[in-house]
Amino acid sequence: MRRLFVLTVFVALFMVSASAEIQYQGTMDENEVVMNTSIQLECDDPCPVSRWSLTWNLPEKAQMIEIKDSLGEIEDYQRTGESVSITTNSEKRYNETVQIWMKIDKPAEEVHDGLYYRKMSIPSFSGEKTTGKIEVEDLVSGKAGFGFDSSFVNDEFRFSGEGPTNIRVNFGDGVENRYYQFFGEERENSTEAYEIAVGTTGLVQEFERFSVAVMDNRSYNEKVNRWSSGQYISGTVYLRDDLDEDYLPVLTHETVHGLNDRFFRWDKTGSTYIDEGVADHSEYLMKKKLFRKNRAKTGTREIFGESKKYKVEEEDGTYVYTIESQGDRDRLWNYYRQDKEFMKNWDPRENADAREFGYAYSELLIKYYIINNGTVKDLYSNIAVDQEIESPQQKWDFLSNHMVMEPCNYDSRDRFDKCLDKINDHDYEIVTGKPDTSSRSSLGFEEIKVPNRTRGSSGIKETVEKTQVTFQQFLKGFVDYLLSLTG
Description:
By secondary structure, the chain is an alpha+beta fold. It has helices spanning about 190-200, 215-225, 245-265, 275-290, 330-335, 355-370, 375-385, 390-400, 415-425, 470-485, and strands at about 15, 20-30, 35-45, 55, 60-70, 70-75, 75-80, 85, 95-105, 110, 115-120, 130-135, 140-145, 150-155, 155-160, 165-170, 175, 180-185, 210-215, 230-235, 235-240, 310-315, 315-325, 430-435, 440-450, 465.
């Protein structure tokens, strides 16, 4: 899933020609937030001035404690809803600092099993320097908006940028390992998921660990959705607790979304084909690694291809597992022939009918680029931008300058088929990445060589085609078995 973080812009106004710098300092926990906002004003023209007047928006449910300037407490202010109009005390001066002390008596949102988060608006003047330092006990992860830098060190979240933004902070006391902090059941070997995600993208997050909420199906359905296995939201990975062999591949997939989060903050279109394509490809690499090292019964599946059979020796016989292709090849052919364009706006949350096709198309974009152009890291170096893009068409056109956006689109069906066969037959390399312990901006990479694994042996006692079996089919088979026992 694509990370979900909605930015709401709050506008602050001031009525004197001046420049300003805004500093936030405070504390937060699961019960309350206490914040001091320092607004440093400097007169531009005419100077000096007797008073500054400004209107300041407040976070939701904020309670005023005190407002003061360099001359003392300010009593000349008026609050209207979620904003306050302030006039400083009288005395001519070239600069002034207004301090707004506030408190928010609102419980933090609990994600799962002791993991909490808070989202806050950070008002400021457009184009003016805005910085913040917030102490959070058991700080895990979080984010600030586009154009802002942030750091997470020793239970202190710092951010800096220009203008207003929003922040999200995740905190709680979970079970830590090298790259994750788990809330719910912890699984082994999670390091592998992180290092394949980093090795594929060449990116590293701003905080030390991702928080991971491992939920039973009921909780996941209620808090996330019913159709996905995992989701990433602003520093936290959400996983179902019954993924079994899919656990590491899904964790790899969602970790990629977490690493992509900061990189793709310029993308305001809502379309997710690049983000999902890289995540799907990384999931593919993890499945490939697990299968070839005999740690999974089945390996990868094709995209817009054929079903694949995996033969597995078990105690009671030999089983053949059939993994269906993701995406129908004829549907892709018709998509191109009919000049359809819905992938420009594709988001798996919005169109269930095109969900499987969209995932397959997204992965095809990335795999085609890797075979014909280079690595994902090469792609990212070409599409790093410092301006927001809001139009899906503008994003598509921009990416078209750096990659093929309609891979395998040939007039000849034979060339179309051969192109897709080449995509599915390619032996994609697995690269792991590890952050330098002394500097998170430095990465080391290592290519993993995994041997081919044979799929089965002679002397088959029993062969069972295992495809996707519905719950109703299972019940029918079980009832038939009970009836056979009774004669």
